[in-house]
UniProtKB/TrEMBL annotation:
<dbReference type="GO" id="GO:0043565">
    <property type="term" value="F:sequence-specific DNA binding"/>
</dbReference>
<dbReference type="InterPro" id="IPR027417">
    <property type="entry name" value="P-loop_NTPase"/>
</dbReference>
<keyword id="KW-0804">Transcription</keyword>
<keyword id="KW-0238">DNA-binding</keyword>
<dbReference type="InterPro" id="IPR025662">
    <property type="entry name" value="Sigma_54_int_dom_ATP-bd_1"/>
</dbReference>
<keyword id="KW-0067">ATP-binding</keyword>
<dbReference type="InterPro" id="IPR029016">
    <property type="entry name" value="GAF-like_dom_sf"/>
</dbReference>
<dbReference type="Pfam" id="PF00158">
    <property type="entry name" value="Sigma54_activat"/>
</dbReference>
<dbReference type="InterPro" id="IPR003593">
    <property type="entry name" value="AAA+_ATPase"/>
</dbReference>
<protein>
    <recommendedName>
        <fullName>Nif-specific regulatory protein</fullName>
    </recommendedName>
</protein>
<dbReference type="InterPro" id="IPR009057">
    <property type="entry name" value="Homeodomain-like_sf"/>
</dbReference>
<keyword id="KW-0902">Two-component regulatory system</keyword>
<dbReference type="Pfam" id="PF25601">
    <property type="entry name" value="AAA_lid_14"/>
</dbReference>
<keyword id="KW-0805">Transcription regulation</keyword>
<dbReference type="GO" id="GO:0005524">
    <property type="term" value="F:ATP binding"/>
</dbReference>
<keyword id="KW-0547">Nucleotide-binding</keyword>
<comment type="function">
    <text>Required for activation of most nif operons, which are directly involved in nitrogen fixation.</text>
</comment>
Length: 469
């Protein structure tokens, strides 16, 4: 198989990658060129459509410049689609089987691979030239749109952990282009904040940022809300209504909980991603939309694909630039900064001065936060309400226990084990637990109800010297 890319300046199609069969060498293969419409590969580029031959020798357009293919076997070539649904290359391969009944499945597989390859090429290669702004949305061409909007710049994202620094670097890179982004993470980790930052730091910042939760509506209302409807399309449709895709034209559409979407919606979303086209519910007019998609999910989409609950081709279309948000329990070093930031936010909303003590911060760092940043904010707001003096201290911290109480608060510290004695400061309790565990951090973590990572972090910031065992 091979990948060919089109040079629009020289109007030639050249081989950029070639997978040869075992023990075959093809010197000079990268020098082979095709013109649009020349041979099978050039025809696919010119027409922008897949081509499937049950037997390659049956088509006179086959040039065989590589002297590589078996004339009695099938041949499949699919276009690599670039911006504005224009072909930027061709992916071609020869299945090593003669069964015609398998060709549709092979073609679908190659088209899925081609989608992923094309998106990667757009991300890694095409940005080296000047980006072409979408013609349908002159608003995007404004130079000031490249300046981050107030309130959504990266300086407003809280966290100095290595994971958050890496995420901020990714946002800076991906914001510059129209690449589809899939934000993954547990509920409450801040996926919408990431989508906001990408949009408002992108060339589309002057256009609309439209949000939609795919789990918020039943299937019979979901398509109308997203694609719009014509007057009389169903009972109660007394006028034409634009959907979220039209409202986001020229801008960004954030699809939260994409893993909850139905098969029907997935098929229509795939068409928009591939062709930029849609119809309103009850209408037959094809509308073109220029929308950047940022999707988010807390589901394991690979498993959903394996189970048949999520389309594989849509998964590859969405997962071009994945951003994985770690849960708060895995970035404990960010909790102190987050807490101070949220306390300032709560103080502003309540119109008063609020402070949080170091003891309260240490207590917050000992909790596992199953609800992540959202739960932390709720906890601090409850604590602020209970604080009459304006000081949030340990005694007013109210956790949402449910079935997951604060792991480092065993029954008020009334226990015969000294390493759980809350009258000791945190450093003394940690040393006591390490001594009891024979200085094995994993065992000490179990004693304290923490993770080994939390223990290691505290050893570092508290300057505890570990003996050599």
């Amino acid at each position: 198989g091979m990948i060919c890319l089109y040079d629009s300046q020289q109007e030639i199609l050249s081989i950029e990658a070639l997978q040869q069969t075992e023990n075959q060498t093809l010197p000079g293969s990268t020098q082979i060129r095709y013109r649009p419409g020349e041979g099978l590969v050039g025809t696919v580029l010119a027409q922008g459509q897949s081509l499937v031959l049950p037997r390659v020798a049956d088509d006179q357009r086959f040039l065989d410049r590589l002297s590589l293919y078996d004339y009695d076997l099938p041949f499949i070539a699919v276009p690599l689609m670039g911006p504005h649904s224009r072909p930027i290359g061709v992916l071609a391969a020869q299945p090593m089987a003669r069964q015609e009944e398998r060709l549709p499945a092979c073609t679908r597989f190659l088209e899925t691979v081609a989608n992923l390859v094309a998106q990667t090429i757009r991300l890694m290669i095409l940005p080296t030239s000047a980006p072409q702004p979408p013609q349908q949305s002159p608003r995007v061409e404004r130079p000031r749109a490249c300046t981050p909007s107030r309130g959504f710049g990266l300086e407003n994202m809280v966290g100095k952990s290595p994971a958050m620094r890496q995420i901020m670097d990714i946002i800076r890179q991906v914001s510059r282009w129209d690449t589809t982004v899939l934000v993954r993470g547990e509920s409450g980790t801040g996926k919408e904040l990431i989508a906001n930052a990408i949009h408002h730091n992108s060339p589309r910042a002057a256009a609309a940022f439209v949000k939609f939760n795919c789990a918020a509506l039943p299937d019979n209302l979901l398509e109308s809300e997203l694609f719009g409807h014509e007057k009389g399309a169903f009972t109660g449709a007394v006028r034409q209504r634009k959907g979220r895709f039209e409202l986001a034209d020229g801008g960004t559409l954030f699809l939260d909980e994409i893993g909850e979407s139905s098969a029907s919606f997935q098929a229509k979303l795939l068409r928009i991603l591939q062709e930029g086209e849609m119809e309103r519910v009850g209408g037959d007019e094809t509308l073109r939309v220029n929308v950047r998609i940022i999707a988010a999910t807390n589901r394991h989409l690979e498993e959903e694909v394996r189970l048949g609950h999520f389309r594989e081709d849509l998964y590859y279309r969405l997962n071009v630039m994945p951003i994985a948000l770690p849960p708060l329990r895995e970035r404990q070093e960010d909790i102190a900064e987050l807490a101070h930031f949220l306390v300032r936010k709560i103080a502003h909303s309540q119109g008063r001065t609020l402070r949080i003590s170091d003891g309260a911060i240490r207590l917050l760092m000992e909790y596992s936060w199953p609800g992540n940043v959202r739960e932390l904010e709720n906890c601090l707001e409850r604590s602020a309400v209970m604080s009459e003096s304006g000081l949030i201290d340990r005694d007013v911290i109210l956790f949402n226990h449910r079935d997951n109480p604060p792991k480092a608060l065993p029954n008020g510290g009334q226990t015969e084990d000294g390493w759980l004695d809350n009258s000791l400061d945190e450093r003394q309790r940690l040393i006591a637990a390490l001594e009891k565990a024979g200085w094995v951090q994993a065992k000490a973590a179990r004693l304290l109800g923490m993770t080994p990572r939390q223990v290691a972090y505290r050893i570092q910031i508290m300057d505890i010297t570990m003996p050599r065992l």
